[in-house]
Amino acid sequence: MRGGGCYAAVDDPYLLGREHIVITRHLSRKSAGAAESVRRWWYQRLSAVALLPLSLWFIYELAGLASLEYTVVREWLAAPSTAILFILLVPVLFYHALIGMEEVIEDYVADGWRKTAAINLARFSAALCALASMLAVMAVTIGI
Question: Is residue 109 exposed (0-12), middle (13-18) or buried (19+ Cβ within 10 Å)?
Answer without folding.
Answer: middle
